[in-house]
Design brief:
The complex is a heterodimer of chains A (617) and B (631). In chain A, 63% of the residues lie in helices and 9% in strands. Chain A has 617 residues and is of the alpha/beta class. In chain A, 48% of the residues are buried. Chain B is of the alpha/beta class and 631 residues long. Chain B is elongated and about 120 Å long. Classes of the chains: A alpha/beta (617), B alpha/beta (631).
Chain lengths: 617, 631
């Protein structure tokens, strides 16, 4: 299973193709896999299926008992026509019917409850597996996958798989037993009447299945059109200032109308498909009933059968009607489970690109020297496009190096290779001479912390956010980290101080505040290697200066790497590497590089004297 | 799956304690799901949307009634056939008549069910789209201050979730007319066929009602709990997806897994409880059905034996009994749908009732393209909150073709000036004049055509690069768009994209850098070809290389236009014909760079601090400079 099965914009159209193929080959193996998951809960599965058999048995006894009661009421019962005997017989039948009804109810409950329970257990297990897989899959996977698609898999596809046991498998068993035994009973009573009573079953079953598959295909299509509509609305509201600025309300309304009409017309079409089907199903059911009434009525008049028998045929038909009509839903549930399962299992079966070597030991550090040895790298999505080529450098504990270069030069990639967010494609990176691929990821990432460009805030309190990497941290530790990131005073000014909730659904922080929070988060961990990946861009120069002095206090114990495009952020470094097209083209201290009059100097002139065309001139 | 569940849990203490500061996902604050069962005002508002379709709705109700009548008639026909036609040697013509009646009934039934479902389905869809259109179009006109304080996500849930629950409500309310009729019909027919037996059988009905009344609140609580734990677990999953880089960078996978497991198990538990509540009704309904049937058999059967009752009546009773618990079940469900609809309806009307503050005057004039392009502020007082003016008596004039830079610390009122030119808000006192006309006397549309705006955050729409450049000037040719892109220096990088100008931009231009998006928004403004350009320079950090391109593009953009720039970069400021310095909503100085430097006030002090951008200057220093400037 490759990543491609689950990626790509064509996801929905691809799944439509899946529907048509309705998974006969691969689909079967997916359904088997879900069934095996159900069998891991043997007693619940057993109860669900056992109860299904019993419930359908009781269900079938009801028409028989009703027929018997009607005959007994007419004095046709077994004991002759003596009134008292007939009354006793009626009483017995009534009690039997009551008992059968109660038992049918009880076993239907057991059937429904346990089949749902099995589904929920499967859902729970898949949820955990899915969560864990998503957490562990490497950056390269997440780069290639739209987060919305992952959410679809984790929520909707999982739901489709979960529903399989209760809505597809168990119901199918129920229906089969009902039709199987019912047909036997009817046909053994009266062949012609039995055939007539069952005559609606194939038509309704077929109609319902075909229609459901058609509805499913149009449903996927409708979802696509609604997604377009959603996007139009969302962008309009998000970009309302642009819309107003260009007085483009009419333009936006017409975009909305187009998207809206296309979705509406399909919605109407779907109503048409659905209604044509339900009416036809109902008609054929009643048609069959009319035939039974006709032929049965004639037979009663000829004395071939009793009114009770006829009534039990009719009752049987009403009992059978609902499940047969639902056949389409079952077929749909099978189709849905197989397409959803294909995507979900596709994700769960993915290989994790960056993982521990077998029996890898934890990283233990002595002097903490970081070395890049002839490192080459290209992203998995574009293997021919070398991002880094033959890159070598060394940083000792206590040293700070700066990495600078034009956009796309590969400077951020360097930052991402150290904690193994990606693995190098050539050469190696060592810490204390040990290849970082030979130690556990866990110990490596505790030693190397990258302050990332986009600081992600979790929707929780500020203190929980700062303590993200060390959730057992004490308040004083958090405050200290926050102080050195120059965040402390700001936080104290907030209404709930460190208890203020931030993130998506909390107080929103400015870019600079977010970056300061990420810095505090990293400082908490006292890493041996600290990497700033352009993570001070939104912080003003003076504050950055203060953060730098605070950091210098502990800088002696670690390797510091600063990736930035603002020279002010890295001028003070012990050494600066100027990277271009994945290679180091200049290196030295700020003063040395300025004196060289090369690219670094050109960039310096551009930033310090804006407006002068230093680079092009 | 077992092997995937095996993880280290070292971050959780051996005694099972979870880290005190670790949480996954957030507890979202759910909106009120259920409102009152019936709210006259809301129903009235919804009715306004249904009104255009009232003929169809009336027809649908008739169809539902006919359909229900047929459902009631069929057992009666069977009864007739049995009692009059089905004795050995019975009346053949009676059976024939019954069969003909049955045939007619099912044809009518077919027609009625077809009509009813088509009408209801289509009208519900139409109304759904109408409500959504009305809201969307309303949102195009409400004041920006409303839009500013309302999250997009919240509005989207109005446009989707709430509108959908209205649709559900419409569909089910027509069907519940059918349910009520069916229930009443069964009661009436049973009592009519045999009053005593009818009464006896119906005694099971109130029992079910009472059971449902006790069951419903508890069951609903369990359903809500299941729903809530579900969204909590889903929220945690979404967080894991969005924050995966931070999670891996901080090595939080094991703790998060344990915490997620807590939420997933809570979800499992509540779902099982909810399933128990849902299923417990099954044996109750079945038992009551059994009791009712047993009564008919014992009591009715005895009377049939005694020739006091036709056997057909007994058969009809048994058929009705199997149907008559269905309407009760769906009616109690309808109750929840109603409550949900009222809560949604309330939220929808809240949006629809937001006042439109800014409207064209009845005699508003169109601003013609040959106006001179001047902009003037006359004693403008303005505040988002009238008690706290953001602009206090600001007056200045920008002459045709002139470029003016607005400068000042955060909160000085620069952005407000910009919004007022476009009449995003209404001034409290004074007037804003464009081309010599008060903006309040002009049509908003014509005003917008003469003012091009570039916002600080470049916002691009999903679509091709070309569509974005000519955004709403759809009449602009491809050549004009390319011309504009070349002029602002965006052509080169656009051509490097896989499909050039036809490359599809990701969500909000996600596949472009900030600087590149900025350049495209410049090209968009150039294509708009307005007399006046209002520009809010980006403050976000753009790398020096793109920055250079942007500076050049700016010069191009301002050529031959009146320009009003909220400037952050010194380079831009120095190039301006005139600089207006604002502080705390007041204009404190204006003039060109050299003049202001000689002035020795705030501007010169800030300039002398030697920051590349005014935004880099910490607030304390600005305050200090302002204080010094004032003395």
């Amino acid at each position: 299973m490759t990543t491609d099965t689950v990626t790509g914009d064509g996801k929905l159209s691809a799944s439509r193709a899946h529907v048509r193929a309705a998974g006969w080959g691969k689909g079967l193996s997916i359904l088997t896999r879900i069934t095996v998951m159900a069998l891991r809960h043997p007693w619940q599965t057993g109860l669900a299926i056992g109860a299904t058999f019993i419930a359908s048995g009781f269900q079938l006894m009801i028409p028989l008992l009703l027929g018997r009661a009607i005959d007994e009421a007419q004095g046709i019962g077994a004991g002759g026509s003596a009134a008292s005997v007939a009354q006793d017989a009626l009483l017995v039948t009534a009690l039997l019917l009551l008992a059968v009804s109660v038992l049918r109810g009880f076993f239907t409950m057991v059937q429904n409850y346990y089949s749902e329970a099995v589904g929920h257990h499967i859902g729970y297990e898949l949820r955990l597996a899915c969560y864990e897989k998503i957490q562990r899959l490497s950056f390269s996977f997440h780069d290639s996958m739209h987060s919305g698609d992952l959410i679809t898999i984790g929520l909707l596809d999982l739901e489709g798989v979960r529903m399989y046991f209760s809505t597809a498998l168990v119901r199918m068993i129920f229906l089969s037993v009902l039709i199987g035994i019912g047909a036997y009973l009817l046909l053994s009573t009266d062949v012609v009447l039995g055939l007539l009573a069952l005559s609606f079953v194939p038509f309704v079953g077929w109609r319902s299945s075909v229609t459901q598959l058609k509805l499913r295909a149009t449903w996927l299509d409708l979802q696509e059109r609604l997604a377009v509509l959603t996007r139009v609305m969302e962008e309009n509201l998000g970009g309302i200032r642009v819309v107003r600025a260009f007085s483009a309300q009419d333009h936006e309304m017409s975009k909305f109308e187009t998207a809206s009409r296309s979705a509406l017309s399909l919605a109407h079409q779907r109503v048409g498909i659905r209604v044509a089907n339900t009416s036809a199903m109902t008609f054929s059911f009643f048609g069959a009933m009319g035939l039974v009434l006709w032929v049965g009525g004639t037979k009663v008049m000829a004395g071939e059968i009793t009114v009770g028998t006829l009534a039990s045929f009719l009752t049987f038909m009403t009992i059978l009607q609902m499940p047969v009509r639902q056949l389409g839903l079952m077929v749909n549930a099978f189709a849905r489970a197989s397409t959803c399962g294909a995507r979900l299992f596709g994700l769960l079966d993915l290989d994790i690109a960056v993982k521990d070597a077998p029996q890898a030991p934890d990283l233990t550090l002595r002097d903490g020297t970081l070395r890049f040895e002839n490192v080459g790298f290209s992203y998995p999505a574009a293997p021919d496009n070398a991002v880094l080529t033959d890159l070598s450098f060394e940083v000792r504990r206590g040293e700070t190096i700066g990495i600078v270069g034009p956009p796309g030069s590969g400077k951020s990639t360097i930052a991402h290779l150290i904690p193994r967010f990606y693995d190098t494609t050539a050469g190696r990176i060592t810490l204390d001479g040990k290849d970082i691929r030979d130690v556990t990821l866990r110990s490596l990432r505790r030693a190397v912390v990258v302050v990332q460009q986009d600081s992600f805030l979790f929707t929780t309190t500020i203190e929980n956010n700062i303590a993200y990497g060390d959730p057992w941290a004490k308040e004083t530790q958090i405050a200290r980290a926050s102080e050195s990131a120059q965040l402390h005073n700001y936080v104290l000014g907030l209404p709930a101080s460190y208890g203020t909730v931030v993130g998506e659904r909390g107080v929103s922080l400015s870019g600079g505040q977010k970056q300061r929070l990420s810095i505090a988060r990293a400082v908490m961990l006292k890493p041996a290697v600290m990497v700033f990946d352009d993570s001070t861009a939104a912080i003003d120069a003076a504050t950055e200066q203060r953060i730098r002095s605070a950091m210098r206090l502990n800088a002696g114990e670690r390797v510091t790497i600063i990736v930035a495009h603002r020279l002010g952020s890295l001028m003070h470094a012990d050494r600066i590497l100027f990277v271009e097209e994945g290679r180091i083209v200049e290196q030295g201290t700020h003063a040395e590089l300025l004196a060289r009059n090369g690219r670094y100097r050109a960039l310096y002139d551009l930033q310090i004297r804006p407006g002068d065309d230093a680079l092009t001139g | 799956m077992a092997e995937e569940l095996e993880t280290e849990r070292a971050d959780v203490r051996d005694d099972g304690r979870r880290p005190p500061r670790a949480v996954v996902g957030s507890h979202r604050i759910e909106e009120e799901i259920f409102g009152k069962v019936f709210d006259k005002n809301i129903v009235k508002r919804i009715w306004a949307f249904v009104r255009p379709y009232r003929a169809k709705v009336a027809l649908a109700v008739v169809a539902v009634l006919v359909f229900t009548a047929m459902q009631l008639a069929i057992p009666l026909i069977i009864r007739y056939a049995i009692d009059h036609g089905m004795q050995p040697g019975g009346d053949r013509s009676a059976l024939l008549a019954a069969l003909i009646a049955f045939g007619v009934a099912i044809i009518i039934n077919y027609g009625a069910s077809y009509a009813q479902e088509t009408l209801v389905g289509n009208v519900a869809e139409d109304v759904l789209f109408d409500i959504r259109r009305a809201m969307f179009s309303h949102l195009q006109r409400v004041s920006l201050s409303f839009m500013d304080k309302t999250e997009v996500g919240r509005l989207m849930s109005r446009l989707q979730g709430d509108v959908n629950s209205m649709q559900e409500f419409l569909e089910t309310s027509v069907l519940s007319v059918g349910d009520i009729t069916l229930l009443l019909g069964i009661v009436v027919v049973m009592l009519y066929l045999d009053f005593g037996l009818g009464l006896l059988t119906l005694s099971a009905l109130p029992v079910l009602f009472i059971v449902r009344i006790f069951w419903l609140p508890r069951a609903r609580k369990s359903f809500m709990a299941a729903h809530e734990t579900n969204s909590v677990a889903s929220g945690a999953l979404a967080e894991a997806i969005h924050g995966v880089r931070a999670v891996q960078g901080m090595d939080r996978q094991s703790v998060n897994f344990t915490l997620f497991d807590d939420k997933a198990s809570a979800n499992l538990r509540t779902h099982l409880t909810a399933a128990r509540f849902a299923q417990v009704m099954v044996p109750i309904v079945d038992s009551l059905t059994g009791v009712a049937m047993a009564l008919v058999i014992v009591v009715g059967g005895a009377r049939v034996l005694g020739q006091a009752l036709d056997v057909g009546v007994m058969v009809a009773f048994l058929f009705y009994i199997q149907r008559f618990f269905d309407p009760i079940r769906s009616l109690t469900l309808q109750y929840s749908v109603m409550q949900r609809a009222m809560a949604s309806g309330q939220r929808l009307t809240d949006v629809l009732d937001v006042r439109v503050d800014i409207q064209d005057k009845p005699d508003a004039r169109a601003l013609s393209a040959d106006m001179d392009g001047s902009v003037e502020f006359r004693d403008v007082v303005f505040g988002y909150n009238p008690k706290h003016p953001v602009l206090k008596n600001v007056s200045f004039k920008v002459n045709p073709g002139e470029t003016v830079a607005l400068v000042g610390p955060t909160g000085s009122g620069k952005s407000s000036c910009m919004s007022l030119i476009h009449r995003f808000y209404e001034v409290q006192q004074g007037a804003v004049l464009v081309g010599g006309h008060d903006v309040r006397d002009l049509t908003q549309d014509s005003l917008g055509r003469q003012i091009a705006m570039v916002l600080q955050e470049p916002f691009l729409f999903t679509g091709t690069v070309l569509e974005n450049i000519r955004y709403h000037r759809t009449e602009a040719t491809r050549e004009q768009a390319i011309e504009a892109a070349k002029a602002v220096g965006a052509h080169d990088f656009i051509m490097r994209m896989p499909d050039g100008y036809d490359s599809i931009l990701g969500q909000r231009g996600g596949n472009l850098s900030l600087g590149q998006r900025q350049l495209i928004s410049f090209a968009r403004a150039l294509v708009a070809d307005a007399k006046i350009l209002v520009l809010d320079e980006a403050t976000a950090n753009i790398d020096s290389y793109t920055e250079m391109l942007i500076q050049k593009a700016l010069v191009k953009l301002l050529e031959g236009r009146t320009g009003l720039v909220i400037a952050h970069r010194l380079a831009t400021i120095r190039e301006a014909d005139r600089i207006i310095v604002l502080q705390n909503g007041e204009l404190i100085e204006s003039g060109n760079h050299a003049e202001l430097m000689r002035n020795g006030k705030l501007y010169s002090r800030l300039y002398n601090l030697n920051y590349a951008s005014f935004d880099d200057i910490p607030e304390q220093i600005i305050e200090q400079a302002a204080a010094e400037g004032a003395t």
